Amino acid sequence: MTRIAVCAPSTPITREDAQTVVALAAAEFPNLELVFHEQCFAIEGHFAGSDQLRLDALVDCANDPTFDAVWFARGGYGACRIAEPAIARFGHLAGEKAYLGYSDAGYLLGALYRERVGRPIHAPMPGDIRRPGGTAAVRRTLAFLAGDTSGMEPSLGVETHPVVAFNLMTLAMMCGTRVMPGLAGHVIMVEEVSEYLYAVDRLFFHLTAHLGGVAGLRLGRVSDVPENDRPFGADAAEIARYWCERHAIAFLGEADIGHDAENRIVPFG
Amino acid sequence: MTRIAVCAPSTPITREDAQTVVALAAAEFPNLELVFHEQCFAIEGHFAGSDQLRLDALVDCANDPTFDAVWFARGGYGACRIAEPAIARFGHLAGEKAYLGYSDAGYLLGALYRERVGRPIHAPMPGDIRRPGGTAAVRRTLAFLAGDTSGMEPSLGVETHPVVAFNLMTLAMMCGTRVMPGLAGHVIMVEEVSEYLYAVDRLFFHLTAHLGGVAGLRLGRVSDVPENDRPFGADAAEIARYWCERHAIAFLGEADIGHDAENRIVPFG
């Protein structure tokens, strides 16, 4: 039996969504046990409870010897406020767990990777159950936790470098902070959602200035781009290629990740 | 006679707006001569012409011995793509000029300040003529260029530290890049427009991690905050105070700057 603790370092999910995910796991993955921490349903302003509540729940889950993995409930925003103090309270048992999520949870994945704590994994989250086709996304992470690696990002099969995957905004905001991992020699996958292309260009201006020594960059999907008052003049792949070229970073093409039901799994490292 | 070159390192303005500003200067400031570079009206996708066109126009204006100041036409996005290569082509005469603008033009002000080239000045731009009350904003910069310093940000009168002023997003994106000035010992003023409060919080998470050794931070106006699906739970001043406290940065209160007609003038240094 693999036991998985779910907590919400960013924003809350509903009890209904949690029940749907628990039911899916029970029906299809008898060797998985999902336990949603009560904090997942807390609401305080933007967040799933105060910084202290979210921090305590994350530390509880990470340090609990009866769990094998910690799954982040959903993104939204907020994990950057608690990542550093939370990991400072992680004990020895926290280092033996897998940590799964993406989007805003990337602050935690990155901070864990920096500190060499546990196994950070870019993967769909329980909150994805609300997306069109979201059941397939959630099932992909559950299957991975049950030992089925077929949901992994396809380029990983032939990649010889260590790999990380992040939301573009999340990784850009981590640059130069105390949660930014060293990424020299790595392939960096980034995806984005709901940003104007000029903002994507601006984020690449910033991010690529911080990626000295990386092995290369792959671009996931840049989806739900809002309509601007005029066309930007380049698409997301052209933007990524332009900034990679300015910083002599190898642009390696597409990555099969994104804020969508097709989002594939990328274990860090 | 003070001669002022106007170019557009980011996005274009209209000929009508340029004519309105020229007429205002002619009517009220007989000792100023405004010359709009033809590049101000170029359009290529998002930008006021290609990177090369914008870069060449900026270098033309900066190196022209007949001008005393370079005024950036408006913000929008794009100056970060040309700031570094432009300044590399600036000659001796460029170092004797004032450079005026704000918002996206902050990439240039910051890069100039980093390289100790000329006098960077946060100030309203010709494009502000379109704002409600925009004539007063444009007049403030013209009066400053004509020698009237009454439009300067009020705290400057008693401030003993060097000061800079930036759009929050712009300064956050500069952090760690080759256009970021050293700001140790400085008072940093930041303002923001049209960002969700969670995004303002995220920008402060990032920015304050890069402000080691500054003398303090002042918050300008955070305006046109979009309505989110739920309240954030803290206002912009509380957000700024929180992140300053986490990084032991002195929070010094308000600054009279913003994306509005009241935006005051802040000469860097």
From TrEMBL, chains A, B:
Domain LD-carboxypeptidase C-terminal intervals: 166-269
CDD domains: Peptidase_S66 (cd07025)
One Pfam family in the UniProt entry: Peptidase_S66
Domain of life per record: Bacteria
Segments forming domain LD-carboxypeptidase N-terminal: 4-115
Stored SUPFAM superfamilies: Class I glutamine amidotransferase-like, LD-carboxypeptidase A C-terminal domain-like
Keywords assigned: Carboxypeptidase, Hydrolase, Protease, Serine protease
Stated family: Belongs to the peptidase S66 family.
Descriptive protein name: LD-carboxypeptidase
Organism: Novosphingobium soli
